[in-house]
Fold:
Amino acid sequence: MKIIYLLLIQIFLFIPISAYSQQVQKSGEELFLEKRCVRCHTIGRGIFVGPDLNNLKNKYSTEEIIKWAINPQLIYQKKGKVPVNQGFPPMPPMNLSQSEAEKVSNYLLNFDLKDGLSEKGTIKGTIVNETTSQNASDVEIVLRSYLGDVEQGESFKKVDANGNFTFSGLDWNRSYELTVLYQQAQYTSSKMVFAPNQDIISLELPVFNSTESEKNISINNLHVIIYPASDEKSVSITNIYELLNSSNTIFVGSKIEGDNSQRKTLAFKVPEDAKNVNFLNGINPENVIKNGDKYFDTTAVNPGFRNVVLSYELPLQSLSTSLKIESAYNINSLIVLKKKDGVEAQVEGMGNSQEVVIENDTFDKYERSGLSKDESVLILFDGVFVFREFKKYIPIVLFGIFILAGIFYSRFNSKSEPKDCVYSREGLIKEIARIDDLFELDGIKESEYKIKREELKNKIIELNIKK
Ligand code: HEC
Structure:
């Protein structure tokens, strides 16, 4: 999928170079945490989603553990059964490299459960209001536990006067998620698990003062990529937004009438007749609601940048299909990339284009800085598909034109009265215009066009002389 590459390139354009971390040698323990083994396995603390990985040396050879870490199918094929351990689901392939799998296997075989560990785990932390730099008191916090994706229970706590909270007595073989509702915005931590030999997870949960005003929301960059859709009767549009909340407050949007639980936050304008509208990145499609010609996210917008990718298809119904690029927020920099082959369109209000090649595809690139939310850029499609369909009828149309031309010539030849000549002259000019159009639409060969045009021109000159 070329377009996916394209998106990746575009998305990477937005990521600062510093985000690429250097390749560092990881230890077996680090890999066990990072490669998500820890999300399904404890070592010596009971079964979790998968079996307890303690004392593996009594059960498997080093080679076999390596195979588990790379792809359990290698074990399943050899043993001829799935799963190996009764009562468990099959383990998904984790695709570790050989050397990573060796390190993890080494770690597992030499693992020592520390002495003096607690019976149960503790998650504790502080809620910090990043807008005021003060700890947030008087806040309720919810802890949910999960086995895989299935919720196992929840408990509630109020943070103390210093913004601190502690949940203790937690089972090792669960994952945990914290949720806080603070000034109309909901904050949810990522899922946490206890690492082998870990008793306490401590963390700081940042929250912000909230605002209903969208004045700090803008689009730092918008890239609009236009290319032919697979059905040839539409164009595909992909918008890549780099959104910015430039304040130190969270944007919680406004209430939706008649709905107490949801709020409208980020707004995205999409043409009414757009099809297959999809949020591919940056916004959870489950949280999106449609309201008129806008799509709204319903989750709060944290300070800082966010990349959102939105794609849709625009049916090319007539020669006059157009796309208005506009936004609910001011745009700092706008780039339109239009695939050269397959999409005939004029981009208005963006100046001249420049040719760029991305992944073997050539695009016309239009650039402009600054597009306020009251302004728009118009893209007029020259009916790509309409003409493709039209091509089928070219022979008939040409035939029709020749017959008409035939009638026209005979009339012209038989009558030479000046009055008729004036009429004929107009007809000739119209005919020139018509073959010009035809030529532009590729409906006539260049050589043929030139000859015909020359003929018509000569007739006009002849007429003028006769006059
Ligand atoms: C999504 C959950 C999940 C993840 C992630 C996962 N495993 Fe597993 N693992 C399982 C399940 C379930 C089984 C039991 C499958 C079976 O018996 O066929 C299992 C079985 C195993 C076994 C065999 C245990 C035994 O007693 O027979 C090993 C070894 C193992 N996993 C290692 C790993 C390693 C190493 C990783 C990380 C690279 C990992 N697993 C990541 C779910 C997971």
The chain has a mean pLDDT of 84. The first strand starts at residue 121 and ends at 129.
